[in-house]
TrEMBL record:
InterPro entries the record matches: GINS_Psf3, GINS_Psf3_sf, PSF3_N
Residue span, DNA replication complex GINS protein PSF3 N-terminal domain: 6-57
Source organism: Fibroporia radiculosa
Source taxonomy: Eukaryota, Fungi, Dikarya, Basidiomycota, Agaricomycotina
UniProt KW keywords: DNA replication, Nucleus
Protein name: DNA replication complex GINS protein PSF3
Coiled-coil blocks: none
Family the entry assigns: Belongs to the GINS3/PSF3 family.
GO biological process: mitotic DNA replication initiation
Claim: Oxidoreductase is one of the keywords in the record: no
Annotated Gene Ontology cellular component terms: GINS complex
Coarse class of the protein's main subcellular location: nucleus
Source taxon at top rank: Eukaryota
């Protein structure tokens, strides 16, 4: 998968969501959490698409946790017997696991 603006694979990989933990209060962003709050409060958590998480993380507004498809459990299963792990069930069809992993690695 290449990092091309017009690449469908890149668009789909960037649309995957990651868990973000907010460090500070952010006004008018409460809708990201799906709740009724107007502002996103410090220490709150929300699932944010990768394309938006880049901005929040690099601006030092939020941190993220490694998504479950890249957890130690999955890595151990891949090391033990790679053929037993269905990557398509972890993130999606079409090689998104690799593209999403590259994006996580860059963060």
């Amino acid at each position: 998968m290449e990092d091309d603006y017009y690449s469908i694979e890149s668009i789909l990989a960037e649309n995957q969501k990651i868990q973000c933990n907010f460090k500070i209060d952010i006004p008018d962003m409460g809708h990201l959490d799906g709740g009724n709050e107007r502002d996103m409060k410090a220490l709150s958590k929300a699932q944010i698409p990768m394309w938006m998480a880049y901005i929040l993380i690099y601006s030092n507004y939020a941190d993220f946790t490694i998504p479950p498809p890249f957890s130690a459990r999955v890595r151990n299963a891949l090391n033990a017997e790679a053929r037993s792990v269905r990557l398509s069930s972890l993130v999606g069809q079409g090689g998104l696991w690799y593209g999403f992993g590259r994006m996580i690695m860059r963060l």
